[in-house]
Amino acid sequence: MITVEHLTKCYGDFMAVNDLSFQIEEGHVYGFLGPNGAGKSTTMNIMTGCLSATDGTVRINGCDIFEEPRMAKKLMGYLPEQPPLYMNETPIEYLKFVGAAKGLKGKELAQQIEEVIDQTKIGSVRNKLILALSKGYKQRVGIAQALLGNPKVIILDEPTVGLDPIQIIEIRDLIRQLGKSHTVILSSHILSEVQAICEKVLIIAKGRLVAFDAPENLEKLRQSSNGIDFTVEALPEETEEILETLGISEGYELNEVETGLLKIHVKADTDDVRSVCRQLFFAFSEKQKAIVEMASKKANLEDVFIELTEGDDSLEEGEVEKE
Amino acid sequence: MIAVWKHELSGHFHSLTAYIFSAFLLAFVGLGAMLYNIQSAVANFEYVLSFVCLGFVVIIPILTMRVVAEERRQKTDQLLYSLPITTSQIIIGKYLALLIVYLAPLVIISFYPLIFSRFGEVYLLTSYGAMFAFFMMGAAFMAVGTFISSLTDNLGFAAGIAIPVILFNYYSVSLAEYVSSTAIGSAAALIVAAVILGFVIRHLTRNDRLAFGIGAVLSIVVAGLYVMDSAAFEGLLPDIMKKLSLFERFSKFVNGVFDLTGIIYYLTVIAFFLFLSVQSLEKRRYN
Known about the structure:
heterodimer, A: alpha/beta, Rossmann fold, 6-stranded mixed β-sheet, 14 strands, B: mainly alpha, 2 domains
């Protein structure tokens, strides 16, 4: 559906996007994840033809965005980070303009406007000035605009930024709905959001793609950070002895809270953290040492994100200096 | 293009700009007609138009300042870029909407000579010839204003630059008599212009090498030509200032000459500045 190859964008000496390549299949919700300034918006702006690239190509259904912009743009609906709304117009007037600019006419235009108003639930404000609408409604009008012309791909740049929790839930539901009939790409720096809506996640940092997978698979990537925290009534020497019988001789931390009470963190390089919990429990209970608190910790997308984006940091120290 | 044109037109009439523009233009023409045609009992309506010309300094920027700058200010330019339309279509659509807004009061004004002709002999041909030229001149200034508006996202700045540009154009002929007409003076002025052009290019492209290159090459060319043939520079600066004046061309029409070269001159100015506006929009894609 969308093929991005070796995309590079430089602002003077600063590389905002650095040799980015990926492919997007039809009919999924994709999440573009990265810290602020990672190049998410830049990439989306290039993909939608708002910005030129220094190098590389973007093809939508085979249409090159730089060579055949008209064809390529017809296949996409785009909501930039700040919804591009004319404040002194009503949603109806605004949608009429965007629809006409997308080549819709007469009955078809009127019908599509009704459809997107229905989909985004902005019927109640259709004749109010956009200026007077709440942020959530403004965002909806922005999404409605992107939906006009029935594009195959909908690209949303941080669609939930600045909304209140209820509005966020509503917009997420809307995006999920859209995902059923369109390919949706959304960017965000909020991990839980991407985890909640997206089927595939692209993580970018410093303009580079550092991971591209389903959220569950990305979590597996970070099995190494799975671990168990527990508190036991024992002395350090006794604890070390017990752990050794379990074959754990390193990769743990002991922390004496008070005499005879230890806080311990054990790493568990496996997906099955529970079995390690079980072993620990029986080993300590056999020696009459009571575990008074225990919690297993599975890595989540957040950890993956931090490791991947920070790992990149050290990797590209040289280039950062250049910037 | 039609979508942009319609949208822009409704935008002008939604906001007050179109009404303020029309009101000012009608007021100026009314005042002129009062002074010349009624009080002084002169039958030439073209004198009124000539009198109104100075009003362009105020009314053109009112209309053109928001054309592109407003899109950038409220970030709707991103929408325009992402729509399946070209930047040329955007600029031409917007420009045509400006022309319609400009034509509306002119249609009313076009009845004035007819009304006056009921009370005496009015030179209708000259009147309407001058009115056509008046329209063309305003259209040319609107192209200039559109370009200035495309350079910034600040409406005040867009108007603030357009006003002195038109004012300078208005007085350039009278100023031409005061500037140095010596060869060395003209050459120096041209070099200064080349350096200023370099700075403008640097501001637009943020490309030091290109800006410096163009500024330096033009300066060297001017200096070289001056060394080769300094006589050619005699009186060049005032000449150029007169040639650049859009108002000067208009005065021919007021004097009863339907000057085709003037019309072609206006058309060239329009095409040139619309082209620059498109480039200015295109350039935003690159940085």
